[in-house]
Structure formats: structure tokens, C-alpha cells
Amino acid sequence: MVRCHSLANGGFEVMGRRRSRESLVRRGPRREPFERVLIVCEGEKTEPNYLRELIAHYQLSSANVEIVGDGGAAPISVVEQALALFRKDLDYNAVFCVFDRDGHESYGRALQCMQAASPLERRLGRRKSGAARFEAITSNPCFEYWILLHYQYTTAPMLRFSDVEPRLRLIPAHAAYEKGAKGLFACTQDKLETAVTHADRANAHAIEHDTDNPTTQMSSLIRYLRELAEKKSV
Question: Under a CB-based contact definition with an 8 Å cutoff, are residues 67 and 52 in contact?
Fold first, then answer.
């Protein structure tokens, strides 16, 4: 039965509808009928904040695209966390591990671990349902190289965050850049296509010169999420 109660201004509110709204809030984001994605990040704030802002921009439900920011400080920890989460829920269509080179001792080991574990076998209950995409979204030396590519194309070797930060701070919009700050995607989104183009070009240059410094695979993840948003809207 739908019941009403009087309001202070003499009107009425439908109790059933109010409770329905409240129950939606309690349940959280609703899963939509498109691919499920798990993204595990090395950083606790910078990368997760950026990616959450990005999926909000593309109107992708966080129930479908899950972003985990406690993968640990080491690349191998990110990969192990991603594998553990997948084994608890075998119905992800894609699993991405986001981590930096940045002098980490376990960087190479993390990539080897991913290669050994791939492909991930999806299941719905007891039934096999194909392979899940399992991909490393690496940045060498660091995620900030991806941000830098929004403004300039460079293939100058950079070994650590401390090599990228001074270049980034020369850009007026990032003169006071701080790791973990919110609003990074909003600040850079109008230059996203430039960054994708620059990243693809830098990665091709690295392959040609038999190196991986500097490179970033963020363009691959952006392209995947954008295609997901396009599928959703069809």
C-alpha cells in the first residue's frame, strides 16, 4: 500500500516513493548490463582518484568498473592483489594492473607473474565463460609522465618521479602539483586526445629504439574505457 503523510507546508509526500529512493541510496551503485572490469592501482590516491573521475565522466557505473587503490607500493603486490580479487569473483571481463617502473625492484617480476597467469579463466558458477583480459598498465618512470604528455611530447629518458615532477611544474596548471590531489582528470580532460596521441607515439618510438623509457600504457586503458562507454550507450 502506498501511504502519504502531511508536510509542514500542508502538502503530502508519497511514503512508498521516498522509501524507494532511500533504499536505492543504501544499495549503492547499480550494476548495468555491460562488461565488468577490475582495476587495481599501486597508488592509493593519485591513480584511483583520476580513474574514478574518468569513469564518472564516461558515466560508467562503479558497480561495473571497480577501482581498487590499496594494491600496495610494489608492482608485485598490485598483481598479487588483482589475482586474489579475481579468484574471489571469476566473472570479471577484464583485469588491469596499474603500476609504475620508478625504480621498483619487483617491476620485472610483476610483469613475469602476469604473463604466467594469463589468460585468466572466467566462470559463471561451475560453467567456464571464456578468458578475461589481463593487462599491465605500466608507466615508466611514473604515472605523471602520462599527465605530462597532455601538454608536451617528449621521449627524453626519465628514471624516477623526481625527473618528471620539475617538467610538470613548469606547466602553469600544475605549478603546485601534489600527488593524490583530486580534480586531476577535470584539469586535463580537454587535452585527453593529445595525451593519447603522444603516448602512442612515444610507445612506438620506444619499441623502435629497444627501450621502455619513457613509456605509458595509460592510452590503452583510456581507449578500452571509452569503447566500453560507447557500447553502453548503444
Answer: yes
Q: Structurally, how many domains does the chain consist of? A: 1
Average of per-residue pLDDT across 160-186: 95
Strand partners, 120: 132
Q: How far apart are CA 215 and CA 133, in angstroms?
A: 21
Q: Which domain holds residue 180?
A: 31-233
179: its cell numbers: 600527488
Find all residues with CB under 8 Å of 225, minimum gap 6, and list them. Answer: 37, 54, 55, 58, 60, 65
Does the residue 134 lie in any domain? yes
pLDDT value at position 3?
Answer: 39
Question: What are the residue ranges of helices labelled H in 58-191?
Answer: 75-88, 107-117, 143-148, 161-169, 184-188
This prediction has a pTM of 0.85
**Cα–Cα dist 162/164, whole Å:** 6
Residues 13 and 69: beta-carbon distance below 8 Å: no
Residue 20 lies in a domain: no
Q: Are 44 and 180 in contact (CB under 8 A)?
A: yes
d(CA 115, CA 109): 10
